[in-house]
Amino acid sequence: MELCEGFRVIDTWFDTLTSHIDRMGEHLDCQNVCLDGAEERISTLKDDSNSVKRRPEKVEAVLKYVSTNNEVTPLPRGFKHTDTSRMDLFV
């Protein structure tokens, strides 16, 4: 009986671990999508002469952040993982 119970515990633990890994994968995919979207938004801002004339150093700073951190890293404060519309916080 103890052996069966042990297998049940391991099986439950494995299911939990697999579920956690799947959720982390989704979370990391969301971060990459967000950063990719942010990069597109910055490119648009750089093309918009008014934005670049107003605050070019901030546009460059955000572009540098995205290009150097387009891996799995925490997003800047004020970001949600799927919210690419908030790039204007930095511009």
List the helices and strands and how they pair.
Elements (H helix, E strand, L loop, with lengths): L1 H46 L1 H6 L1 H13 L23
What is the count of helical runs? 3
Number of strands: 0
Q: What is the overall pLDDT average? A: 54
Question: What best-fitting shape do the alpha-carbon axes yield?
Answer: rod-shaped
Quickly give the structural class: mainly alpha
The protein's oligomeric status is single chain
Kindly give the count of domains.
1
What is the H/E order? HHH
Q: Main beta sheet, described?
A: none
Determine the strand fraction and express it as a percent band.
under 5%
Measured as a percent range, the helix fraction is over 70%
Roughly how many Å is the radius of gyration? 21 Å
Structure description:
There is one protein chain. The protein is an all-alpha fold. The chain has one domain. It has helices at 2-47, 49-54, 56-68. The termini are far apart.
Short description:
By secondary structure, the protein is mostly helical. The chain contains three helices and no strands.
Which features does this protein show?
91 residues, mainly alpha, 71% helix, rod-shaped, disordered C terminus
